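G.,

No rush on this.
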Amino acid sequence: MGILWPGAMGSALGRAWRSAGVEVVTSLDGRSARTRDLAGDLTALGSLEEVVRVCDAVVSVVPPAHAVTQAEQIAAAVRRTGSTPVVADLNAVSPATMGQVATVLEAAGCVVVDGAISGPPPRPDGDTALFLSGASCSPFADLAAPGLRAVVVGSEVGAASATKMSTAAVYKGTKALLLQSLLTARHHGVLDAVVADLSTGAPELTAHLARDLAVAASKSDRLPAEMREIASTQAAAGAGAELYEAVAEVFERADASAAGAATPEEAASAIDLDAVLDALTRHR
């Protein structure tokens, strides 16, 4: 199994599958120091081309804005090497974008699995869902990895992506609502009263407010593109694009703030809600 690329999610997926007995490789060619740290003890080959050459299956895990480019790079490596691994695109993209990815990869001779991850990077004591769809979802649907639950949602490419777009709209849209509401409450000096009310009416939203909002802000470099993938998915379903176009703007502002400069690893230790909100009001 080849992981492209081993960021926080990709490296955790690699370790989950490795614990299930799969030989997992990746490449660190051109990767950042953070990605190299996150890859840890995963076996690293010299290039994407080497990964494609030796693997039966390859997984694409990149920010949504890079999904089609990544597919093109994998397809080019397939043509150069003559290898045709099964390719699972696990990126947070619309069914339409997933269709573009599938067209690129199928033209190179690859079997394509539409996939999407719901939940945090998998860990043995967790429960992360891996939505899958396509004519064949092997080998991914057949692997019993600790903390990773495979869910086949359909036989058509696009179904897994549609599932992700629908669930992410709720999970990440809720984070945007909290960002907007709590920044407004803080501005008016009523933050404590608002948090107290939410803690009574929706306690699941407030259990880890500082951490959740800090982590959302730290990932806001990639979230605007994902929100626009959701917007286009909803528009194609006749629901309109305007809501998640606006949510994309919320995360663009977060990315431009001091809170957006933190890494997710740094943000995960946040415990002071007022400090997080203060960072969201300041530019980098």
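When you get to it, here's the other one too:
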Amino acid sequence: MAAESEEGVEVVGRTVDEAVQKGLDMLHLRRDQVSIEIVSDGARTLLGFRPGQVRVRMAPKSGLAKPHRAEERRGTRNRVGSEVSPTVAAAGQEAPPEVAARRAEPGAVGTGPTPEANAKPATEAVGDELDVARRLLADLLERMGLRASVEVHPGTGEEPARLNITGRNLAMLIGRRGETLAALQFLTRLMVSHKVGHWVSVAVDVDNYRLKREETLRRLAVRMGEQAIETGRVQELEPMPPAERRIIHLALRDFAGVSSQSIGEGESRRVTIIPARSSRS
């Protein structure tokens, strides 16, 4: 569900990342090009079990024009990467937004880094944030009674820094379709952002689960793309969370002869791979 106006959009989702990604798709902008206000973060229990509905309000930053309606309607079937996300998240992702996560009061967020953060060199500030993130996540795992270590992998380019949890018997931190891991990542981002005073986009992984899953999805995308070309028929993949759909779209972005798009709603949303010459009537 989303409400749109000339100034921006108001979107709902199961998580903040999912809602933000829906808004970015509607606005055709990147996260660093929009201002984001969390209207409601929903009723949420520990690690995201029985999550509530998240509502965010998004608008282009000053000086950025919203794409013309004609551009939004142009060639949906030829547009690839419409699911660039979070989460979930995911799995990675676009350039981190300079959006404050500390709320002055329920339903509101700040709009930028604190003066103390600005006073530090960029590399030092990033290093401090990652150290804070590592310590907070390690403390959370200890309180959960888990014996695990947290590895820090600095971000590269548009990829955020990654905290990889290593240890034994950690499958419970991943959950069905990575839902528990996505909730753990969201919780970690909230804790770190509250601690440092501004929004910090950091990915959380467990025994490199996300990296292995990404490679599996890329191979699946190529295989199904080849099958779409050979048969001339649209290929539909299983339902996936936003971050995994994004991996499929990116893998097919430069794949000649096919395009991809997402269909369906909620947990049933999935990727379709469309050959240039489809036999679908």
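Residues 43-51, 68-120 have pLDDT under 50 and may be disordered. The chain is about 35% helix and 20% strand.

Enjoy the weekend,
O.
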